[in-house]
Every structure is written in structure tokens, then in C-alpha cells.
Amino acid sequence: MRELVIDLDAVVHNLDVMRSRAGGAMVMGVVKANGYGHGMIEIAKTLESAGVDYLGVADNEEALALREAGITVPVLTWLQHPEDDFKAAVSANIDLGLSSIEQLERVAEAAEALGTRANVHLKVDTGLGRNGAAQIDWHKVFKLAAQLQTNELIDVVGMFTHLSSTSEHDDMAQIGKFEAAVGEARDAGLSPRIRHLTASDGSLSYPDAHYEMVRVGAALYGLDPFSAGRAGEWGLRPVMTAKSSVVQVKRVEAGQGVSYGYLHKTERATTLALVPVGYAEGLPRDATRHVRVLLNNRLYPILARIAMDQFVLDVGDDLVEVGDEVVLFGDPRTGASSVDDFAAACSTINYEIVTRMGGRFKRVYVGGE
Ligand SMILES: *Cc1c(COP(=O)(O)O)cnc(C)c1O
């Protein structure tokens, strides 16, 4: 057994928490990367029934999959590829986050071919240095967007940017730059109705920067966006529990080398328990020696090298049977490692842990009725 148990009630609860934090602003639920590893369609349907205002994904391919699944709430994409067929996206009524002249031209072409208008959110780079129009290009981009809007090929409904979360000082500088960009866009004749800037962290830290919408990913999945183990303090509930069960138990003598490279050798006669989760499931190989998993109400470190399909626990003289449940991470109130503990033990952030979980894990959904 290998399961990622996804608590849909916790997702609804977390949406409520973030909605009350957002004040009057709309809430976009971010479901990119297979809903941060939780299953994009199930999470999106749950958020849609719970009244989320928008869904956000990186790619158009993800957005089209949402539409194919019958999801009708507004969807925004922001990572445009040179091979993307914008006609498909525009026909599916997907809002497009655009960062360049070239993207604007291609979207206008698609809208013209379809005899319709594309909903556009202009993305400006205010300091993250990733996508978004660079400041030196703002004028050209806004001018072209205004012209395409006059020609009824696009409707610039929104304008947005993304923070680097480096420091409050850097974030404030970005907010100032965003204000300047919106001013320039208005001077060019645009009137973006939905300005949006904050992700989970900024939505919690900067209530004055919510504008008309906040874009929330991590917090909906119960993850502390600061990876500081404080999700509970924000009132967020964990959504994913990664679990498996013991498939073999055996007694061995002292001095038995365990798994590749013998990182672990038994110090005395002991019991070894085999668990069928490996790096193919997204369990970082480097987690060996650092993470602790829950078995029969006790946390055991994984001492022997994590392999592709399995890891071994040295449980000493504790009584363990085939079929006993092993929780890799989940709700810390159950005694399991939280995803934050697990991430810290792997020298990474909770976002990476939940998105990389996959392989032969099955997602099992609970709640959400
Ligand atoms: C992923 C992403 C978000 C959501 O970020 P969280 O930290 O998970 O809330 C918001 N906006 C953009 C542009 C993103 O790429």
C-alpha cells in the first residue's frame, strides 16, 4: 500500500481562512503542477464548489485540462510557450497572463482568427527577474495592448506581478514599482479591473497589497508559505498525508549491513521492517538518515540508504507486523512528522516535498461532500 491521502475538507477550510484574510479581495486558487501534487482536477473541483473566484495554473495545457474536466470558473495561465496554440486557450475562455509584445501579437492573431476577444492580464516584472515585461518594455507593451483593445481583439482585464519574497524591503520596492506600472498602463489608455500581486506569503504579510485579488497556492494545501512550521498558527490544516505499510519484517544479527553502501549496520540483534516507498515515489534519496517516519506511534529515522522502491527501518526489539501503517508525513497532531519537519530534514521547502510525491503512490480523497 502506498497512499497520498488528500483531505478535501481541509482544502475548503484553508480556502475559508485565506478568504477571510483577503478581506474583500477575490481569491484565486493556484492548482498548477497537478495541484501541488494533490491532484489538480479534484482540488479544482473542490475549490470551485467552495466558491473560489479564479483558478490559476502555469501552462495552458493545465488550463485546458481543467476545462475538459468541466470546470467553468475563470482560469488564468502565466507561463506561455512558443509552441502554445492560443486559439485553443482563447476558445476555452482561458485568461492569459502575457509578458511580451510577441505574446500579445500571437494572442491577437488567435482572437482575430476566432472572431472573438481574448481576456488578458498583463504581467510586469517588478523585480523578481523571472517572467513579466521588463520595465524598459512597459511602454511598448502597454501601447500595443491598448491598440489591440481598441481593435476589440483583447480585453485587458487584469494586471499582475509576483514578489521575490527576499525581504520586506525588497517586496515594498516591488509594490511601489507595480503601482508605477499600473499608472503607466492607465496613461496608455488601459483600465485593468483586477490587479493582483500577492501569493500565499504576501497575502498573509501584506494586507494592504491585496488589490482586487490574491493568488493562493501553498496555504490552500495547508503549507506554511514561509516553511517555518507555522501553518497551524495561521489556522491552516494539513491536506496531504503520505503513508504506506510494512511489507516484510525479519530478525537479524548484530553486524548486518542494511541497504546499498551499508550506511547502516545493525549494532545488535534487531528487527528490520521493509517499506515499499523509494525515490521513485519522490522520497528524496538524500533524506536518508534525516527524516523520521511514524510506525505504531513511534518515530523512526530512516538509517539505511533509501532505494528506488523501498526503505528499511531498524525497529530494535519493538513489535512490528506486516501490514502495520507507516506515515511519512501528515498531521503533526497524530504524532507524524509534519511536511515542514520532513522538508527541513531534506534541506528543502514543503512545496518541493508535496509536488515531488508521486510515482506509485495512489491519491485517495477523503471529505469534500
Ligand atoms: C505558484 C504561484 C503562486 C502561488 O504561490 P504560493 O506561494 O503557493 O501561494 C502565485 N502566483 C504565481 C505567479 C505563481 O507562480
List keywords for this structure.
six-stranded mixed β-sheet, 369 residues, binds pyridoxal-5'-phosphate, 19 strands, alpha/beta, Lyase, Ornithine Decarboxylase, Chain A, domain 1, TIM Barrel, elongated, eight-stranded parallel β-sheet, 24% strand, 30% helix
Which molecules are bound in this entry?
pyridoxal-5'-phosphate
Strands of the biggest beta sheet: in what spatial order? 8-7-6-5-4-3-2-9
Q: Please give the CATH architecture of the largest domain.
A: Alpha-Beta Barrel
* Quaternary assembly: single chain
In short:
The protein is an alpha/beta fold and 369 residues long. Helices cover 30% and strands 24% of the residues.
What does this structure look like?
The protein has eleven helices and 19 strands. It has 369 residues and is α/β, with parallel strands linked by helices. It folds into two domains: 8-222, Alanine racemase (TIM Barrel, Alpha-Beta Barrel); 240-366, Beta Barrel (Lyase, Ornithine Decarboxylase, Chain A, domain 1), CATH 2.40.37. Helix 5 (86-91) links the parallel strand 4 (75-77) and strand 5 (95-98). The longest helix has 20 residues, at 168-187. The structure holds pyridoxal-5'-phosphate (PLP).
Question: What topology does this entry show?
Answer:
Blueprint: E1 2-7, H1 8-21, E2 26-30, H2 32-36, H3 40-49, E3 54-57, H4 60-68, E4 75-77, H5 86-91, E5 95-98, H6 101-114, E6 118-123, H7 138-150, E7 154-160, H8 168-187, E8 194-196, H9 200-205, E9 213-216, E10 240-245, E11 248-252, E12 257-258, E13 264-265, E14 270-275, E15 292-295, E16 298-301, E17 311-316, E18 325-329, H10 339-345, H11 350-356, E19 362-366
Parallel strand pairs: 1-19, 2-3, 2-9, 3-4, 4-5, 5-6, 6-7, 7-8
Antiparallel strand pairs: 1-10, 10-18, 11-14, 12-13, 14-17, 15-16, 15-18
Helix pairs in contact: 1-3, 10-11
